[in-house]
Every structure is written in structure tokens, then in C-alpha cells.
Request: fold
Amino acid sequence: MITFESVSKTYRDGTTAVADLDLVLPSDQISIVVGPSGCGKTTTLRMINRMIEPTTGTIAWDDRPLKSFRRTTLRRQMGYVIQNGGLFPHRTVLDNICTVPALLGWSRAKSRSRAIDLLKMVGLDRSLAHRFPAQLSGGQQQRVGVARALAADPVLLLMDEPFSAVDPVVRADLQQLVREIQRELGKTIVMITHDIDEAMLMGDRVVIMRVGGRIAQVGTPDEILDRPVDDFVEGFVGKDRGYRALSFAPASGLPVGRVRSVRSAASATSGAPAVVVDAEGRPTGWVDPDHGPAVLPLGATFHPETDSLRAVVDATLSSPLGMAVALQPSGRLAGVVRAEDALAAVRRRRLEVADQHRPEEQAADAEPDDVPVADAEPDTAPAARSDAAGGTRPAEPDATEPRPAEPDAAEPDAAEPDAAGAGAVEPDATPGSTSTAPPADGDDLERQPGRALGPPPADAPEAPAAEPRHAEDGSR
Ligand SMILES: Nc1ncnc2c1ncn2[C@@H]1O[C@H](COP(=O)(O)OP(=O)(O)OP(=O)(O)O)[C@@H](O)[C@H]1O
Reply:
């Protein structure tokens, strides 16, 4: 757990990048920091591995102040991934991934074996191992960047807009990859992005910052989508937040009804609409005898066990008959959900969310008909009911059925064996480098990205105190 207490950062030129930040980033979760350009995201991230030091306040890792760690020791436990991977252009993929293990003194055989394992983990063929970064696509480079950051098995992964330079399809793959890595390896990940959709998709916890380096809201994605605290957050999360919030409600409780299935449109000349299925029982389209013999498009489908309510609503909207086709895990037809049932589930969810956020005293004073709709009698009259905000809304009778750097890389720790850069991998700034780092210069050093930082070996010593000469901002 990383804890910021009253943390501020003012640069030498007087710019306050972060102001009075109180924040907890829990372990073993993905925390996403999101906000408009210049709101202090990168400054916040780099204060975690002490590439930047706060001007005031305290940052602690599992209750231990960061100041009490040597920077190099700290960084060996924190992998760091930046846009474009920040790879050394003149080193092969394998050598890039082996950088930190090599600096930590691992044997060549152990480093290479680890690198090959990581290539597989990030979904790259080992035949790419001897290529140079320029011979890879942007997405492949980014995967190598992730592999390099993981090479020495860091406890924490810091990611600074890692996917902003790749196209949406590759981006979706990389997002999935990082989520899988987090699940499988149980890493703590802190990632920054401009993209609120990415934040909502990937974050267990989302921190929205506003310009001036202040926190606007912290919460789970669905909390933020359901309850933006103010106009800024509401504007930032976008107009379709109600629809996107459905991504966090499972489809599993919906009633999946039976539907007629036929092998060809010719076999459904009368009667109710039917789903046309292939020889394996997989749905391919609809036929509606009232609309003639043509096979109608199937629309989107969904898996009841794994998909969200959003997928179901989308499937009903894209179905020509307003029925979402549910699939078994095998892809065979499982049944259908009617648009009315999907909407009833949406209404129930809204009521549940409103109920969760109702102040305690209001809940205690609640009238009997304030109970969640699922608990109401099936024949509840469609009269007005109090809502969570104390207003009224019409009752929904059909909803009543219970349904189912920087700098100090430039100012290495003399006491550390990797003082010349071990544990702090700098992207090459030569022409052709994939790094987007500005040249290091004074304070700009703080903005210099591109260190893949690994953890210490299990027996790595930790120095008891911070190094006073590391007054950051260049003032030594
Ligand atoms: N070394 C520096 N010296 C002076 N000001 C700086 C320095 N680094 C950052 N800033 C300023 O601090 C503020 C926050 O910058 P920061 O890079 O942390 O924001 P950000 O949210 O990551 O921005 P972006 O999304 O555009 O990368 C900005 O006004 C920026 O210009």
C-alpha cells in the first residue's frame, strides 16, 4: 500500500504540480490515475519511486516512509513502464529484457531463461528475441517494455501512459495483458492515463485528478460512474456514463428464456420468431415468419456467466427483434433475454445503487415502500415511491419480480553496487531511440522517463536512511 499524506510538489520555477495530496493506493490492485494534461499525474507517479521528491508531506510504502529507503533499493522493487517501452534501440529484445537482471548480477543463463519466459508471458514469440526494437511493431515494443519491467519480479509496477502510442486494437490486447499479469502474479500496479475509458476498464480503483494537482474523486469505476462528485468529474467521465456503468453489473441474474430454434428459415413459415442455428447448434440469425422467409441478422450475443449487463443491453439493441441471444460457453444457443427484462434489470440496479448511497439516517427512517424493488410484493401498485435523493419516481411494477530520472539516476547512490545505473534503466537518447524523454536538464531531469526498474534480489540490503545530498530539483 502506498500512502500519500499532505503531499505537495512545487518545482523550482514555482509551478505547483501536486497540491496537498492525501491518497491511498492499495496493494495487489490496479490503481489508475487519470486526469487532463498537466494535472500532475506523472509527478505523482514519479514521487513513488523517488525520481521526484515531494516538497512537503510524506509518502509511505506499507507504512514505511519512502525517505527511509535508498532510492536504488526502492527502484529495484518497482518496475517502470513508459510510452513506447523506452527500449534501448541498439540492444536486442533479449538484451533489453535482461538489462536489470544483468545489472543485478544474475548469470547470463538465468537472465536469458527468465527473458524467454517473460517473452511468452507477454505474448511474444521467442523468434523475436534477437530482433532490435526498430524491427518490432509499436505493440510488440510495448510488450517488451512490460517484460523488461517485470524481469526481476518487482513488487510494484509503475506505468506512465504505457499504451497511448498504439492503435485501439493493440491497446485493448495490452490492457488485457496487464490485467492478466496482475491477476496471475498479484502485482500492485499504479498506472496513469489520459483516457477515462482505459481507467474505467482497467482500474480496481480510479483516482481522478484535476488541474492544479488536486484529487477530484477516488473510487471504484462503478462508484465514479454512478456518483460523480461534481461537474468536473461528470464531464470527465463522459455523457454515456449510465450506459458504461452497466459494465460493472453482471448478466448472470437475468432470466434466460426459451426460444424456438430451427436449422433453416424454410422450416419456420409460421408461428413465433425463431433462432436459426448451424449443425453445431450455434446461432446464425433470426427468422420471423411475420416478416417473410429472409434470415435476419442475429445481432450481438452474450455469455450469461461472464458478460455484463451492458453486453446484454447492447445485444437487445442490436437484435432485430429486441431479444438478446445468450450463448453457452461452447457457443451453442442458450436462450434469449427480452429487452423488457434487460431494462428491468437496469432499473433494479439503479435502485440498488441509490440504496447503497442512501445516508444511514434516511435508510433508518425509510418507509416500507422504500425497500429495494426486488424485495417488494409482486403486485406493488405503480404509485410514486421515494427515491434516494428524497424525490419521487414512478414505481415499476414489472421490476418487482425477483429475478434471478531522473535526477538520481543521474546522481547514483555511491553506496549501491548498481550506482552506474543498475536497477535504473535509461532509454537511449540517441536518434532512433523509442524514448520520448526530453533531454535531461535541471528540473527537466525529473521528467526524464525510461527506467525499467527491478527489485532487489531477496537478500538486497536496505539502507536505513535517505541520502541528504539528493535534494532533487538539482540543488545539491
Ligand atoms: N521539471 C519541471 N519543472 C517545472 N514544471 C514542471 C516540471 N515537470 C512538470 N512540471 C509542470 O507540473 C505540472 C504537472 O506536470 P505533470 O507532468 O506531472 O502532469 P501530467 O498530468 O502528467 O501531464 P501530461 O498528462 O500532459 O503528461 C505541469 O504544469 C507541468 O508543466
In short: Residues 11, 13, 15, 17, 35, 37-43, 194, 443-444, 446-447 surround adenosine-5'-triphosphate (CB under 6 Å). The CA atoms of residues 187 and 292 lie 56 Å apart.
